[in-house]
Model the fold of this input.
Amino acid sequence: MDDPSSLTQGDPWFQDGNIILLPERPLVGFRVHRGVLSRHSEVLRDMFELPQPDPIYDNDNGASRYEGCQVVTMHDIPIELSNLVKALYDGATFHNRSVDDFFYLAGILRLSTKYVISHLRTQAIKHLTQTWTYDLKGHDNMLDLAIRTPQLSYSSDPNPPSKLSYPYIHPIHVLNLARSTNVRIVVPSALYFLSLYPLTDLLRADHPKLQVAHPSKPSSSLQPSDLVNYTLMFQRRIDAILNFVNTVVGQRTSSARCTNGTGRTCTKNFQRLGMRLASSWVVRTGPFNFIGQTMSQVSQDTEGFCAACRGDFATGVGAFREKFWDDLPAVCGLPAWDVMREEELS
Done:
């Protein structure tokens, strides 16, 4: 190992600590309490029992020690190890204020998975699902927040890219983080949002959110296995829009309880609406927002549709929207939302 005098005291560094964790370069150590970490992780406890391959000797029997403390080499990114240790002492606090908050979560999720620290892993996944959600209400809330939240610059980057829009992180980073930590419940949502990007854009990897530099940033490349999932989700999204426009709206007839003459007026207005919708969507259109806006438009059109037809339309389209959401996991080859929620969040 390098000269011990070059060791930098990291955060945390407890003067009464009895073990020093030594991550990857730069040469920085974290002086902590062996019992505290062992209490939270059997993996760490077992690691502390192993002889170290690159010791600092300051005693006669050749033990791996520094300033009287056991030294354990950790093959982790220093900032992630620092955040994990502080989370074990003080608890983890997650936010969605900037892209740095995602990178903090990514580090906690990686190391809590690696060292089998269940409570931190579950907490990180729960927070991740607040944005990359497992229910339709959460999806709608995220879109509303994205519309209302101003764009931010990435201040930690010496050469910041363009301002980043909420949720500040690219879905490909969420997808790759999920794959590397075996988190399945955020995969359908991440792939759905990823399908809004043309494949050429993903292959160029020049989106501003992909240009952010940080040691905890997941890979910015679409993995070969997920290229298939991306293609399937892209096709499923387009199919949903076409089905909605051409069938759900375009072939809709008036309600049996229609009060608008013989019902022909409402039927014709649904047909006209279908034709307008057919020319208003583009390849990057999100079906959930597109369908939601159409529902709102019909509900407010008291002249074009009677109350009965407006009510039936809201019910039928709402069910169509819910089913499309419920089908997303199957598109990715995953079990139902309820199964994943029980496995990863309970």
